[in-house]
Amino acid sequence: MNRSRLLIFVVVGMLVTTAASAMQLYRYKDDNGKTVMAALIPPHLVSKGYDILNAQGRLVQRIPPALTEEQIRERDEAAEKKKQEELAAAKQAEEDQKLLKQYGTPDAVVSIMNRRLAEIDAVIVSRKAAIEASKNLITKSEEQAANIQRSGKKVGKRILDDIEMAKKEIAVSQSVIEQSQASYQQILSEFTVVVNRLEVLTGTKAKDFPIER
């Protein structure tokens, strides 16, 4: 009989101990800013944050206050900014690998760029020569026309056509030169970006760059 009573006391004691250890308290600030510990939190204070304590009063978990609309907006903006930065970094890494695979070194880029620019320079030189030739033709034809007029004769259609054709050729050549000069600057600008990036990636400087014109 004494044994049974002892067993009951032990079981009851264990249950009481278990219940006590399972009990938790909440620590929060009330409407007046005073710290309160209780088994329940008023619903309207939950969003302000609180601490969860065990039966011994030790901190188990800290629940931060709910974010305000402004804080939510700032958080979302920061997350979006970080996402865009990561995407940009990934894209840059991909482009860097393409540059390394395509060119390898800054000098390789400079070599290709110089060939492209030399081709454009050749076009410009050719067109300038064509303009000079057309100007000479105009001068010669106009002198012929003047001599014919002084002799009292009518200037022939061929001479007038030659002058008109030469003027058109000059206009065309000038347009080609302007376009070529624009292409020159565009190529120089685009390749300069590539050269500078490869210098960073490879840690080597390109020779004879930047070029002087």
Provide an overview of this structure.
The chain has 213 residues and is of the alpha+beta class. The protein has 2 domains: 62 residues, no CATH class; 113 residues. Helices cover 69% and strands 8% of the residues. The chain has 4 helices and 4 strands; from the N terminus they run αββββααα. A hairpin with a 5-residue loop joins β3 and β4. α3 runs antiparallel to α4. It is elongated and about 125 Å long. The N and C termini lie far apart (114 Å). About 8% of the residues have low confidence.
What key phrases describe this protein's structure?
213 residues, alpha+beta, 2 domains, four-stranded antiparallel β-sheet, 4 strands, 69% helix, elongated
Q: How far is it from the N-terminal to the C-terminal residue, by CA? A: 114 Å
Spell out the helices and strands N to C: HEEEEHHH
Average per-residue pLDDT, rounded, comes to 89
Outline the biggest β-sheet.
Answer: 4 strands, antiparallel
SS class:
alpha+beta
What is the number of E strands? 4
Strand percentage = 5-15%
Task: Using the alpha-carbon principal axes, give the shape.
Answer: elongated
- Radius of gyration equals 44 Å
The domain tally reads 2
What portion of residues is helical? 55-70%
Low-confidence segments: 6-21
How many helices? The count is 4
Strand order of the largest sheet: 2-1-3-4
